[in-house]
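Hi everyone, sorry if this is the wrong subforum. Our group has a chain we'd like a structural model of before ordering constructs, and none of us has done structure prediction before. Sequence below.
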Amino acid sequence: MLASLRCGAKARSGKPCRSPAVAGKRRCRMHGGAEGSGAPQGNQNAFKHGRYSKSAIDQRRAVRKLIREAEKFLEEI
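Answer:
Right subforum, don't worry. Here is the predicted structure as tokens:
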């Protein structure tokens, strides 16, 4: 037991969790190593907003580029 791999999660104290990891995983049973833990594939229940979705990030990037180009154009005038 003492030689087993330790959980890699950070505890509330800010220090690493000292519990042993579940066999074949990197986390202990409390931090996500238990069978069935985590959201199912394609879960939409945790989706609150689309701020960090790929399409929103791409759209913000395009807007920033457009603003930079407009500022550059105005400086040339």
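For your construct planning: The helical segments are 54-76. The chain has a mean pLDDT of 86.
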